[in-house]
Amino acid sequence: MIMKTLSLKLDRDIFEETEAIIKDKKVPRNRYINQALEFYNRYQKRKKLSVEFAEASILAHESSSEIIAEFDALIEEDEIEPT
């Protein structure tokens, strides 16, 4: 795996909390930050998918409603016409 070097600035509170956690977990800072970013990236992807599914659901509902209305109209026409 190719690693990229990154320089970042953290709020003091976030840094101190992170330091306490990595000390307790006995995990290297880089590994902890990588895991945290991986977790947050997955969260953001799922959040985006959720929005996309909601939008698709609305479109599917609208389309289904139109199809049902067309079927209802065909059934009504069939019932009105003598056989």
Provide a descriptive summary of the structure in words.
The protein is mainly α. The protein has one domain. 80% of the residues lie in helices and 0% in strands. The longest helix has 52 residues. The model has no long low-confidence stretch (mean pLDDT 88).
- Biggest sheet details: none
* Low-confidence blocks of residues: none
**If helices are DSSP runs of H or I spanning 4 or more residues, what is the number of helices?**
2
In round numbers, the mean pLDDT is 88
Question: Which structural category fits the helices and strands?
Answer: mainly alpha
| Strand elements, count | 0
- Shape from CA axes? rod-shaped
Order of helices and strands: HH
User: Any idea how many domains?
Assistant: 1
Key features of this structure:
mainly alpha; 2 helices; 83 residues
Secondary structure topology:
Elements: H1 12-25, H2 29-80
Task: Give a nutshell description of this structure.
This protein is an all-alpha fold.
